Each structure stands twice: as C-alpha cells, then as structure tokens.
Amino acid sequence: MSKAKAKAKQAKGRLKESAGSAMDNRKMQAEGSSERIAGMSEEMPAKAGDKTKRAKGGH
C-alpha cells in the first residue's frame, strides 16, 4: 500500500473515532481506532522503503 493510501486510512480512522466519541458510540470509536492503527502499520513498510532508497543514494 502506498504511503498516501495509508495516511488516508489513518485520517478516516481518526474521523470515525472522533464521531464515535461525539455520539458516545463505543463500537464506532473502536472501529476508528482499529482503522487508524491499521493505516499506521501499512505505512511502516513504505517509510522503510523510502529510507532504503535515500541510503542508496536515490531520491
């Protein structure tokens, strides 16, 4: 997954989490939190790939 898609997933999760909090809906909060964390874990390989490219001299 690309870094942009992972960031979008994190943002969607944050919004869902906030909406769940505002509506006092614990299930929605948990789903948002789960989605946000999934986005963070999907972003990690993309970040590592970027660092590897920079270390090898590529941009």
Automatic annotation (TrEMBL):
Region described as Disordered: 1-59
CsbD-like domain sequence ranges: 3-53
Highest taxon, organism lineage: Bacteria
Any one Pfam family match given in the protein's UniProt record, by short name: CsbD
Biased composition (Basic residues): 1-13
UniProt protein name: CsbD family protein
Family designation: Belongs to the UPF0337 (CsbD) family.
Organism from which the protein derives: Streptomyces subrutilus
